[in-house]
Recover the amino acids of this structure.
């Protein structure tokens, strides 16, 4: 609500602030890694880093999708359920069938696109608030998955080895899942930053009314944002299936709050109009690293959730402070001009 | 600011109350044991097993492959007994949702409830309500407090399981080295009692060279167990064996190790399901693990419930009853009925089992 | 906003309020006739106990949502209250001290939310997602994964018992008293009018002499206090204090409130609708379970009802206009 869309010449100052915001997460991350590595050097071993990146990949893909929706001043709480439905669909499809990984990815993303489209249409054309719609589809999609799965579970030994390899194998030392997550991040990041379509999302989040007056096709953009979030949640479902190999109807339960937490920690304002997918992905990386670091530091794992909570409060508090500073400095500058 | 004042008054009141005595844990010790005991009922060993009994299974949660096998055995037995089989349960392993299901089963006037308790105490009041309504309560898998069930089907003696876990770990470690345990939840009744036995076993001179470095908890959640296994290997580079006395934990740990650099360096053992573990036994990650046949637990529970409901037994020590293909069983102390010793699975015999 | 628009909105809102109450009554009648054992007095008792936490937390939540804010930390407050109750009981403190302390704790946790939202001016959705994690995390820090049992029978029996020989559970008194208190406050006092005013337009309310920050702060305190009470009742009902008690309940509470016709944007809502929403969800769940329909079906029904509760009136309105 405080974020302002700045005219072109001032873009650099806004960029500087955002960069500072992301710098904060990077510094926190570096500190955390340094402290943990000093206490146990194996924290920086190849295997350990690989594990953290793999765990981050799924959360980061979800966070990127969520960030797109949150930037438009909406929210998507159904992502955990969509992930579960997609993972189970793909698992069922691959059970005993040796289908190519690309097909699995497309099917998973397709499931997500359908769910996201439904969310978007209800929000936009049904005129129902996003929180209500996606809370509703959180229940509905999960219920459908439970119905379908019954008590069954898909085990790793039923899945084709090619698919499981995709979950663990690497190219030039980097796991495929991580490469895929980075690809998603870069594409979304560039579109949001450099393309008209992306900037329109920010405009809608900053001031829906002004955006409409400026002729932005808000309806199509809103549905589009939900389709992206749903599609990425579906994609994350495929990654989940490949990574963990064991899939039941409960896959991804409760993920929605982790994802929103990652996005908020990453500096995306819940009232839309500001923040970047880079920040959201960094937020996901930070949350995942905290989890791993606590296990290595042998700090009681019960602290993890409390720390995450405190971090969220800290992050939004800091954002508030930065926003106030920026607003003050802008005011000062414009008064100088006059 | 009246509200703030109210809060202050409340706090002062609380402190004042604490000064003069009140109901504390020690002052109420022993008050909770009140339970309906059917002392009037006497066992009649020759009573025929009733037909048409409504026998309901309430596992810890649905969607768990191990549970599916257990209740599958129960379904077979209920069929043999010509009863009505029913399976209900929550999707999350929480005690509160189990209570709602018990209440529903009371309303539906079942004859027997076969339940695996998520919390031994939380389900107690409603189980006793069921017993007051004439329903027989048999626990399996995870016992409820002794005062609120008629019989407990124990898969194997605690001692037997603990000993066999240590034996397998010692063989795999070659008699010496660091071992770790990956358990279910920190308050899981079964796992904790086995771990206690393991600790006693490890203290014995013949196991002096085995060192238990850490007990980690995967909460019987696949992903959490996976991450915990990861954490164990990072924290303890010299680890030789991970013992996981839970089917979720052993499968997750095996999956992690089989795809990591640790494969071949760290052995995994514990309690697992042959179908879930087959892949890891075949690829060499797991040399051996153990389990009883879970289908037999559900099967035995149905017969115990039917015998209770028909008046053949009351759950008192020494009573005997026949459990179909499993033969004759004797009720032990505290209404415990022990299924038998666990089976060890290796690459040589695993293909003979399908559960 | 023109007077005419306000009038149609009011009418629309009243329609939904009547509709939800009517649907609830129909569901109760159909269930009583068609579902075996639904109408028994014992089942009534079970039903009340099952909806107890959602029912009481939904009351302050309604007020919070009417002001245009939200509180997602309620279930974690319940959990932390339960965990602290177990911890103190294990430490051999008298229950008569523990219960007020847990209520106080709830109020303090609510005040923390209120502080972040009103004093620092942070968005409540983000704040309470943060405290959702924080409070639940602290509950685990306090009690770990262990469960504390053996609470005094005098107390646990009261919670699960009925009033004399009537079929009415004792806890119904708590629900009714709290519902009346919150209902009167919302619909018949200046505080209630201020709540609606702040929800409709915070700025206008401020010009009318309302202090929105202060109002919201105390609503959060009330929410925390009631959630703390829910934690105590939960613990006594199951005679088991655990850190994970009530996990995930926040979404069920929000669903019940929205189903009751309260607008997520604030400014609109009635407590009667919310009570009907709670009863509807609870009795549907109970009846479906008695008919051996799985829990999954309830998930779908809850979700569809939730969306329909907003979508239905919207579509009806659009049709009427065409």
């Amino acid at each position: 609500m405080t974020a302002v869309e700045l005219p072109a010449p001032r873009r650099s100052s806004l960029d500087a602030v955002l960069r500072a915001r992301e710098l904060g997460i990077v510094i926190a991350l570096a500190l955390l890694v340094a402290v943990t590595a000093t206490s146990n050097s194996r924290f920086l071993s190849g295997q350990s880093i690989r594990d953290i990146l793999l765990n981050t990949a799924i959360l980061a893909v979800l966070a990127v999708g969520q960030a797109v929706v949150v930037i438009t001043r909406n929210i998507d709480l159904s992502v955990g359920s969509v992930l579960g439905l997609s993972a189970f669909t793909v698992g069922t499809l691959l059970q005993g069938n040796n289908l190519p990984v690309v097909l699995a990815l497309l099917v998973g993303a397709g499931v997500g696109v359908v769910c996201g489209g439904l969310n978007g249409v209800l929000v936009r054309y049904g005129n129902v608030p996003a929180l209500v719609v996606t809370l509703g589809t959180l229940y509905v999609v999960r219920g459908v998955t439970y119905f379908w799965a019954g008590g069954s579970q898909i085990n790793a030994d039923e899945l084709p080895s090619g698919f499981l390899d995709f979950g663990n194998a690497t190219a030039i030392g980097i796991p495929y899942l991580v490469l895929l997550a980075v690809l998603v991040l870069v594409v979304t990041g560039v579109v949001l930053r450099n393309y008209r379509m992306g900037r329109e999302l920010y405009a809608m989040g900053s001031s829906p009314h002004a955006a409409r007056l400026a002729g932005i096709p808000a309806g199509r953009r809103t549905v589009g944002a939900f389709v992206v979030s749903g599609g990425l949640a579906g994609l994350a479902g495929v990654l989940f299936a490949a990574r963990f190999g064991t899939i039941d109807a409960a896959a991804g339960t409760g993920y929605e709050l982790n994802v929103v937490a990652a996005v908020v920690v990453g500096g995306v304002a819940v009232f839309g109009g500001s923040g970047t997918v880079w920040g959201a992905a960094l937020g996901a990386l930070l949350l995942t690293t905290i989890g791993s670091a606590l296990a290595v530091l042998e700090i009681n794992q019960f602290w993890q959730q409390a720390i995450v909570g405190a971090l969220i409060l800290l992050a939004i508090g800091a954002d508030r402070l930065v926003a106030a500073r920026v607003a003050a400095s802008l005011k000062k500058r414009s008064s100088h001009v006059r | 600011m009246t509200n703030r004042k109210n809060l202050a008054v409340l706090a002062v009141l609380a402190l004042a109350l604490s000064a003069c005595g009140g109901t504390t844990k020690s002052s109420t010790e022993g008050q909770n044991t009140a339970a309906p005991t059917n002392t009037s009922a006497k066992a009649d060993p020759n009573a025929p097993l009733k037909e048409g009994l409504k026998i309901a299974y309430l596992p810890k949660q649905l969607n768990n492959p191990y549970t599916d096998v257990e209740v599958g055995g129960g379904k077979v037995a209920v069929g043999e007994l010509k009863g009505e089989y029913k399976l209900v349960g929550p999707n999350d392993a929480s005690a509160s949702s189990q209570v709602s299901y018990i209440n529903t089963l009371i309303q539906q006037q079942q004859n027997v409830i076969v339940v695996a308790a998520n919390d031994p105490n939380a389900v107690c009041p409603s189980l006793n309500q069921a017993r007051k309504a004439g329903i027989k309560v048999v626990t399996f898998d995870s016992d409820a407090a002794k005062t609120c069930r008629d019989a407990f089907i124990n898969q194997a003696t605690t001692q037997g399981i603990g000993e066999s876990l240590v034996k397998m770990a010692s063989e795999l470690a070659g008699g010496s080295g660091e071992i770790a345990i990956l358990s279910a939840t920190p308050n899981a009744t079964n796992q904790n009692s086995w771990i206690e036995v393991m600790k006693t076993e490890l203290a014995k001179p013949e196991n002096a060279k085995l060192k238990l470095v850490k007990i980690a908890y995967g909460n019987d959640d696949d992903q959490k167990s996976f991450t915990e296994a990861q954490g164990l290997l990072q924290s303890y580079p010299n680890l030789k064996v991970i013992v996981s006395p839970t089917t979720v934990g052993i499968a997750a740990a095996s999956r992690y190790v089989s795809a990591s650099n640790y494969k071949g360096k760290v052995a995994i053992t514990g309690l697992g399901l042959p179908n879930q573990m087959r892949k890891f036994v075949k690829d060499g990650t797991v040399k051996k693990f153990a389990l009883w046949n879970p289908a037999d637990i559900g099967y035995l529970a149905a017969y115990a419930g039917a015998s209770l409901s028909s008046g053949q037994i009351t759950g008192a020590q020494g009573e005997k009853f026949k459990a179909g293909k499993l033969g004759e069983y004797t009720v032990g102390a505290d209404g415990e009925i022990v299924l038998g010793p666990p089976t060890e699975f290796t690459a040589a015999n695993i293909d003979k089992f399908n559960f | 906003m023109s007077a005419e628009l306000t009038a149609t909105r009011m009418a629309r809102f009243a329609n939904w309020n009547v509709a939800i109450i009517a649907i609830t009554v129909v569901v109760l009648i159909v269930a009583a006739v068609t579902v075996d054992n639904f109408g028994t007095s014992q089942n009534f008792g079970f039903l009340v106990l099952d909806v107890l936490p959602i029912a009481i937390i939904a009351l302050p939540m309604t007020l919070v949502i009417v002001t245009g804010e939200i509180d997602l930390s309620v279930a974690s407050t319940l959990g932390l209250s339960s965990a602290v109750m177990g911890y103190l009981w294990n430490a051999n403190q008298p229950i008569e001290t523990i219960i007020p302390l847990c209520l106080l704790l709830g109020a303090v946790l609510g005040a923390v939310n209120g502080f972040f939202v009103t004093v620092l001016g942070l968005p409540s959705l983000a704040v309470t997602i943060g405290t959702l994690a924080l409070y639940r995390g602290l509950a685990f820090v306090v009690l770990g994964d262990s469960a504390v049992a053996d609470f005094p029978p005098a107390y646990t029996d009261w919670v699960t018992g009925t009033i004399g020989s009537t079929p009415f559970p004792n806890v119904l008194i708590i629900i009714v008293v709290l519902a009346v208190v919150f209902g009167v406050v919302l619909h018949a006092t200046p505080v209630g009018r201020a709540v609606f005013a702040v929800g409709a337009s915070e700025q206008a309310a401020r010009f009318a002499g309302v202090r929105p920050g202060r109002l919201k702060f105390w609503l959060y305190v009330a929410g925390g206090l009631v959630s703390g009470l829910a934690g105590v009742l939960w613990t006594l009902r199951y005679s088991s204090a655990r850190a994970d008690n009530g996990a995930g309940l926040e979404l069920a509470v929000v669903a019940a409130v929205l189903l009751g016709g309260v607008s997520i944007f604030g400014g609109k809502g009635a407590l009667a609708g919310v009570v009907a929403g709670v009863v509807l969800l609870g009795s549907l769940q109970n009846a479906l379970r008695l008919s051996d329909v799985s829990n999954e079906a309830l998930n779908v029904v809850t979700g569809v009802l939730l969306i329909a509760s907003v979508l239905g009136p919207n579509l009806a309105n659009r049709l009427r206009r065409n």
